[in-house]
Structures are given as structure tokens and as C-alpha cells.
């Protein structure tokens, strides 16, 4: 039990790659030492993110000495402890959220430009990381748990009127697509936006790009999700089939920005780049576990004057801006709620592709609502 509290930090932990098969174990663990800019949250909701699964399965690399691993970085909870120098105006009883980052140096050029996600020292993940500003070397634990502790700088107040369960997956999934949408001018310079893949990230891409005023095209392998895309706000739907080059004939230079949420390693990049107008951007947010992207023709880049890039998670300020937009425009997350006690059913179901489009774990014992 953590010193100075009357509650225990307990969560669902993986002890190896087989944990994703429904083998998470409920354990007690010691969080970082409480610092004066920290908060403790009583967790109400936590989204299940594909990153959680890629971490637990070691799809992104071996964890070695980082087991056991309590993942989850789409956390919403009630503030139950504050330090003397808590940030963001947070006070006891507030409902706040934590995304995929829980620490940075807060001193470098990028941290001072509201770009903590690109900290020169390196961002600390909400799980599978180690703190270095306070409690140096202490392991970070995520939200498949009953409590969370960490720096208040990365705890974002949830706007009044926004369903906290719907807010949870926005804190990573939503922010991950919102960040490049805003950076590359969706709804402004980029009037026509393409979203590749209609999944956990892609469905946020559609709703958020639409809320920003863009005309959205969903690019998908089949017509299976076309109705969903239209309900989410997409105006157009492109079916790739097995031959993107053939499928995209007649649609060349129709988009200003493409956000790729797919993690497929064998995309026909030349065909996708043909969809962009000169000056257009193809931005990756999905990460193939192979760590590779299919070949890109230099001629396609040069003659098309198009650009390929990537985008990480959202910064704290970007998350605040996104949540304000969601509250203002009444953007709805498509979620399915699971009792956290059924996590060993929820994770395999997520892997099987059953989510439409985000799973959210509900901590009923802490007051979360199924």
C-alpha cells in the first residue's frame, strides 16, 4: 500500500506475451513516490488501445525487465489526492483524464512550446516507462487499475457535459488523429481529408475532421463499413479492394491531406500518393509491427510535390483543445463498455476485431457506469 493513503494501488497486469490471450492477473503494486505536483486518481474508465496490445504481446519489442506490465493510457478518474503545486487548476473531486504521456523534462525548447510529446529528453509513457523528473527510475503504471498516480501537468480536466466514458478513448486515440489534423490545416488549408482505415483511430479521424469543417473521404479495403462511415460524417467512401492503383483511377489529386491509421505493411504507397494534390501530406499514425513501410517512389514525391510524414500522440494543450471542440460540437465517440472485471474477455475480443469502434473498461467498484 502506498504511504500516506488509505487505498491500495491494484491493477490487471501482464507477465508475458501470453497475457493478451486472457491471462492478465490482478496484482497490488507500488506507484512512484508522491511529488508535490502529482495527483492521485480513482479510476472510473480506461479505454483499450491497440498500443496496449502491441506492448503486452511484445509486438513492439521485448519488455525484458519491465514485466509485470499494467497497461492502459486512456484514463478518466476522480482526483482523490493533490500536491501543493498541482497544475491545470486541478482540485479534489475533479474529473480528469490522462493520455499516453505522463512525464517529460518540462524545460527543453519543445516542452516550452506545448510540444511535450516531442521532449528532447524523451517522453515518458503512461505505462512501460520510467519517471525522471521525480522518483527517478520509478516505473509508470497504466489505467487497467483502480488508482493512478503521476504529474498533474499531464492530467487534463474533462469538460462539463462530456460523458467521461466517451472522453476516455479520446485521450490517446482521438488525440493521435486530432494532432495532425490540426497541424496540417484540416478544414482550413486542407479542405478535403482522407482517412485510411475505419477502426479505433479512423472513426475518430472522421468525426474530428468533420468537426473541424473538412470534407472527409474514408478509404477502406471493402464496403463493409461504408454505412458506419457515412453515419460518422464521411461524405465519400473509396474501396481499395486488392488493387489500389486501379481503385484510385479518376480520384487523382482529390485530397489535400491523408491520415493513415492502418498498420498494414504492404500498402501501394505510389497509388495512395496519387490521391494528393500538389503540396499535400500523407501522415502516418498507425505503426506496422514490422517497423517498415512499403517502397515509396522518389518520382511520386518529386512530380507530385507531396510529402510523407508521421505524427505522435497529442500534447496536453492539444488534448485540451480537442476536448473543448468535442464538447462544443457534441462529437460522439462510438464506444462499447466492458466491466473491468471482464478484462480477460475484453482484450481477446479487441484482438479479434470486434470493437465498434472503441472498448472502454468500466471500474464499477469506483463508481464507473456500465
TrEMBL record:
Keywords: Metal-binding, Oxidoreductase, Zinc. The keyword Oxidoreductase applies. Its cofactor is Zn(2+). The keyword Oxidoreductase applies. Gene3D superfamilies: Medium-chain alcohol dehydrogenases, catalytic domain (3.90.180.10), NAD(P)-binding Rossmann-like Domain (3.40.50.720). Residues 22-361 form the Enoyl reductase (ER) domain. This is Enoyl reductase (ER) domain-containing protein. It comes from Kwoniella dejecticola CBS 10117. The lineage of its organism: Eukaryota, Fungi, Dikarya, Basidiomycota, Agaricomycotina.
Amino acid at each position: 500500500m502506498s504511504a500516506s493513503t488509505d487505498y491500495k494501488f491494484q491493477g490487471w497486469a501482464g507477465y508475458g506475451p501470453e497475457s493478451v490471450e486472457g491471462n492478465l492477473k490482478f496484482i497490488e503494486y507500488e506507484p512512484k513516490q508522491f511529488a508535490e505536483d502529482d495527483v492521485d486518481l480513482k479510476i472510473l474508465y480506461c479505454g483499450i488501445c491497440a498500443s496496449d496490445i502491441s506492448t503486452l504481446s511484445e509486438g513492439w519489442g521485448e519488455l525484458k525487465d519491465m514485466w509485470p506490465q499494467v497497461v492502459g493510457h486512456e484514463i478518466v478518474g476522480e482526483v482523490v489526492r493533490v500536491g501543493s503545486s498541482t497544475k491545470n487548476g486541478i482540485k479534489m473531486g475533479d474529473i480528469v483524464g490522462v493520455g499516453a504521456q505522463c512525464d517529460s523534462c518540462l524545460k527543453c525548447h519543445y516542452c516550452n512550446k506545448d510540444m511535450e510529446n516531442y521532449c528532447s529528453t524523451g517522453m515518458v509513457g503512461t505505462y512501460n516507462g520510467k519517471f525522471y523528473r521525480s522518483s527517478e527510475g520509478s516505473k509508470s503504471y497504466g489505467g487497467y487499475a483502480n488508482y493512478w498516480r503521476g504529474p498533474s501537468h499531464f492530467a487534463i480536466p474533462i469538460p462539463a457535459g462530456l460523458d467521461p466514458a466517451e472522453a476516455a478513448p479520446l485521450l490517446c486515440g482521438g488525440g493521435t488523429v486530432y494532432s495532425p489534423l490540426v497541424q496540417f490545416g484540416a478544414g482550413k488549408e486542407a479542405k478535403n481529408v482522407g482517412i485510411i482505415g475505419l477502426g479505433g483511430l479512423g472513426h475518430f479521424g472522421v468525426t474530428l475532421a468533420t468537426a473541424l469543417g473538412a470534407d472527409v473521404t474514408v478509404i477502406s479495403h471493402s464496403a463493409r463499413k461504408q454505412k458506419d462511415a457515412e453515419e460518422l460524417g464521411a461524405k465519400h467512401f473509396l474501396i481499395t479492394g486488392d488493387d489500389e492503383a486501379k481503385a484510385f483511377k479518376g480520384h487523382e489529386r482529390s485530397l489535400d491531406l491523408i491520415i493513415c491509421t492502418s498498420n498494414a505493411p504492404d500498402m501501394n504507397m505510389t497509388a495512395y500518393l496519387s490521391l494528393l494534390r500538389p503540396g499535400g501530406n500523407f501522415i502516418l499514425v498507425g505503426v506496422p509491427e514490422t517497423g517498415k513501410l512499403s517502397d515509396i517512389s522518389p518520382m511520386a514525391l518529386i512530380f507530385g510535390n507531396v510529402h510523407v510524414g508521421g505524427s505522435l500522440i497529442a500534447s496536453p494543450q492539444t488534448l485540451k483543445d480537442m476536448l473543448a471542440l468535442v464538447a462544443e460540437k457534441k462529437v460522439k465517440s462510438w464506444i462499447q463498455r466492458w466491466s473491468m472485471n471482464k478484462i480477460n474477455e475484453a482484450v481477446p475480443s479487441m484482438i479479434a476485431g470486434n470493437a465498434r469502434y472503441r472498448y472502454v473498461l468500466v471500474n464499477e467498484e469506483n463508481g464507473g457506469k456500465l
